């Protein structure tokens, strides 16, 4: 069962239907997109000697070529490795090496910063020459890896979640079951990165023969988003809560034409109830909240559109998605009764096969056949889940996951840094911002530490404030009390 059959089935039924648009301009019909994906797949196999199961990396900002390459990978039976376009060159290099990817397709502005694989710039003459004589889609098994999704861990080193064709098919079917019915003529607006949730939700739209719309800016610009909602039919899109906040704050919000807006799915971080109420006032009964993570992409719990009318339910993140089990376990993996807080666990056909070449992390995360999310929460009697805390100290800024340990390890490279601890502080627009507490053993400035971070990690991960302290608060076992640091940061 090859996911690319979504595309080819739509191309047979609706060859002239628009498949990809850049702004308001159609760039590919379904017939053209299917043919291009098949030709690119043949070129990858013939010109680069790639065999089924080999990995191809995508370092791409949102652009029409993204779906061409992703679908070509699946047509050829290859594993796609989409990478966050905001990553640092050293982070790109690590993922390429860890995944063993020999080929990387990148948008032109990123192509020069990537090393460790053969790089082809999307839209270049070399990209055009990649096409070859097409043949039939590869015959893959449901358990074969389709998407290697790299998600940082508490060690700071990214881990590749192996998402299979079965996983992504299940997620797409859950979209139809829980969120929305789709039809030709509907649209999905890719306001968020295609390498993450927005790209995943393009799959049910491809299956339905709907239109995938890429903003011309290639980024998130509120005024542009409102223009495109007015220009297309049956518009849906995925957004992080911070994106919704920016949309509501836009000058265009008050006069926006929302008649064509169908559904907004949002998730990736907590949404304050006050912001939810403001969003409901602006967008109406079109909001669907989801809880998921890279290891079970977009598909753990959901709060349907109708439940947004009940204020009390806005404090939860909904109930288990269709075909998904969700429970709360104690430290010994025993199920807790309703109302008690413990670790949120889940199992379904959406849960990853494991971490790429990391059996120890796989065994720990999938212990007992359940995905251990690392998030703490409770279930009520009706099955609604409320997230209480993040046990892994994850910081979510602008919808992007930031792990403190990764930043701490970079800061500790400086010889004048004796100790450090990184926490998240609430931020009105981005959800959270990064704050670093530093104990010095010599002279070092915030500017020096900022330069060190920019040398090794993506810009969006660097601390927004450095606080130099005499000592870090610790408990009797020597563990840093991050709760106390958060209190200090707020004060």
How would you describe this protein?
With 491 residues, this protein is α/β, with parallel strands linked by helices. It folds into 2 domains: 375 residues, ANL, N-terminal domain (Rossmann fold, 3-Layer(aba) Sandwich), CATH 3.40.50; 96 residues, ANL, C-terminal domain (GMP Synthetase, Chain A, domain 3, 2-Layer Sandwich), CATH 3.30.300. It has 15 helices and 24 strands. It has a 9-stranded mixed β-sheet with strand order 2-1-10-9-11-12-13-14-15, sandwiched between helices. Helix 2 crosses helix 3 and helix 10 crosses helix 11. The longest helix has 19 residues. The protein is globular, with a radius of gyration of 22 Å. The termini are far apart. The relative contact order is 0.09.
> What is the first-to-last residue Cα distance?
55 Å
CATH topology grouping of the largest domain: Rossmann fold
What profile does the largest beta sheet have? 9 strands, mixed
Class of the largest domain, according to the CATH hierarchy? Alpha Beta
Q: Calculate Rg over CA atoms.
A: 22 Å
Percent in strands: 25-35%
The mean pLDDT is: 92
**Helix residue percentage:** 25-40%
Number of helices: 15
- Spans of at least 5 consecutive residues whose pLDDT stays below 50 are none
CATH homologous superfamily designation of the largest domain:
ANL, N-terminal domain
Task: Find the structural class using helix and strand composition.
Answer: alpha/beta
> What's the architecture of the largest domain in CATH terms?
3-Layer(aba) Sandwich
- How many domains? The number is 2
Identify the overall geometry. globular
For the biggest β-sheet, the strand order reads 2-1-10-9-11-12-13-14-15
Number of strand segments: 24
């Amino acid at each position: 069962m090859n996911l690319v059959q979504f595309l080819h089935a739509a191309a047979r039924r609706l060859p002239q239907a628009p498949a990809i648009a850049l702004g308001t301009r159609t760039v590919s019909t379904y017939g053209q997109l299917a043919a291009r994906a098949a030709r690119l797949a043949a070129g990858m196999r013939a010109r680069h000697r790639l065999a089924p199961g080999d990995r191809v990396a995508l370092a791409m900002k949102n652009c029409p070529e993204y779906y061409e390459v992703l679908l070509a990978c699946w047509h050829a039976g290859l594993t796609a490795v989409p990478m966050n376009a905001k990553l640092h060159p050293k982070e790109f290099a690590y993922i390429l090496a860890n995944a063993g990817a020999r080929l990387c397709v990148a948008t032109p502005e990123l192509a020069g910063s990537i090393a460790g694989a053969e790089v082809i710039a999307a839209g270049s003459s070399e990209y055009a020459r990649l096409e070859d004589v097409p043949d039939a889609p590869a015959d893959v098994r449901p358990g074969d890896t389709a998407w290697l999704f790299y998600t940082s861990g508490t060690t700071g080193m990214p881990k590749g979640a192996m998402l299979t064709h079965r996983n992504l098919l299940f997620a797409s079917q859950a979209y139809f079951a829980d969120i929305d019915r789709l039809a030709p003529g509907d649209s999905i607006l890719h306001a968020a990165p295609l390498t993450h949730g927005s790209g995943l939700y393009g799959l049910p739209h491809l299956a339905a023969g709907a239109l995938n719309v890429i903003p011309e800016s290639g980024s998130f610009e509120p005024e542009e988003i409102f223009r495109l909602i007015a220009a297309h039919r049956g518009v849906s899109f995925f957004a992080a809560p911070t994106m919704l906040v920016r949309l509501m704050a836009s000058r265009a919000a008050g006069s926006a034409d929302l008649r064509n807006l169908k559904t907004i799915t949002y998730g990736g971080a907590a949404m304050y109830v006050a912001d939810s109420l403001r969003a409901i006032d602006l967008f109406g009964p079109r909001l669907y909240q989801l809880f998921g993570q890279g290891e079970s992409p977009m598909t753990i719990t959901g709060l349907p559109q109708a439940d947004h009318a009940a204020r009390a339910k806005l404090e939860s993140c909904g109930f288990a998605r269709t075909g998904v089990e969700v429970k709360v376990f104690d430290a010994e993996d025993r199920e807790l009764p309703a109302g008690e807080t413990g670790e949120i666990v889940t199992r379904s056909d959406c849960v990853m096969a494991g971490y790429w070449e990391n059996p120890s992390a796989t065994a720990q995360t999938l212990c007992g056949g359940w995905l251990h999310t690392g998030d703490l929460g409770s279930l009520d009697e009706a099955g609604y889940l409320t997230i209480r805390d993040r046990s892994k100290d994850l910081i979510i800024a602008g919808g992007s996951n930031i792990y403190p340990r990764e930043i701490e390890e970079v800061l500790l490279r400086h010889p004048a840094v004796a100790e450090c601890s990184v926490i998240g502080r609430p931020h009105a627009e981005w959800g959270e911002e990064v704050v670093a507490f530093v104990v010095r053993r010599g002279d070092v400035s915030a500017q020096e530490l900022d330069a060190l971070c920019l040398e090794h990690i993506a810009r969006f991960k660097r601390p927004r404030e450095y606080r130099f302290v005499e000592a870090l608060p610790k408990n009797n076992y020597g563990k840093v009390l991050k709760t106390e640091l958060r209190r200090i940061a707020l004060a």
